[in-house]
Structures are given as C-alpha cells and as structure tokens.
Amino acid sequence: MNNRNSLYDIKSFYNKKAVLKASFGGMRYQVEQSLEGEEKVLKATVWPEPFCFEMTPEEQKESEQFPYSEEGLDAVYEWLCRKYEERI
User: Fold this and answer.
1) Over the stretch 39-76, which tens digit does the pLDDT of each residue have?
2) What is the value of pTM for the model shown?
3) DSSP character for 19?
4) CA-CA distance, 81 to 35, in Å (whole number)?
5) Which contacts qualify for 75-81: CB closer than 8 Å, 24 or more apart?
6) From CA 43, how far away is CA 41, in angstroms rounded?
7) What is the dihedral of CA 48, 30, 22, 6, to 10 degrees?
8) Is residue 11 a contact partner of residue 40, using CB atoms and an 8 Å limit?
C-alpha cells in the first residue's frame, strides 16, 4: 500500500473539500470530507478495478467513516491497508 503521506493532510487538502482518488495493486479508493449529521468526518471507500467510482456498481464498494482529524487519517490509512490485504 502507498505510504500514509499519500493521503495528504486535513488542512491543505480535505478542508478544501477535495476528494483523493487513487489506486494500488488492483484496488481503487477514495477519501473525502463528508457530513454525519452536522459533524465532519472522513469517508473512505474501496472498490475493485478497472472502473472509476461513478461507473462501479454500489454493491462492489465498501465505505467506512473516520474522525475528521490527522489521527482519523492515520486510521484511514490502516483501514485501506487491511482492505488491500483482504483483497489479495
């Protein structure tokens, strides 16, 4: 899996409502700012290649929410690594 730095940081990326879209070893993923009620969270989604997020059926996607913080990004990275290991 890519390293933790490949997820950028809260202030310079996710505060701008940017969406990180990437792939690694046959697994595509995205990380974005989302709202859970009125609270900001990080939402990470994984799905298999070859299609983009929009063209992949919902049943092939798996998402998880994390605290909107640098520690939350650390947890996103750990979750993405686990999902990758499960898929190989």
Assistant:
1) 999 999 999 999 999 999 999 999 999 999 999 999 99
2) 0.93
3) -
4) 24
5) 76/7, 76/31, 76/42, 76/44, 77/1, 77/4, 77/7, 79/44, 80/1, 80/29, 80/44, 80/46, 81/1
6) 6
7) -130
8) no
Residue with token string 């974005």: 32
Question: Where do the structural domains in the chain lie, given as residue ranges?
Answer: 4-87
Per the structure block, which two tokens stand in for 65?
């929410």
Residue with tokens 């520690």: 71
CA-CA distances (angstroms) from residue 74 to 53, 55, 59, 70, 80? 23, 28, 26, 6, 10
Cis-peptide into 50, omega within 30 deg: yes
As beta bridge partners, residue 32 has: 43
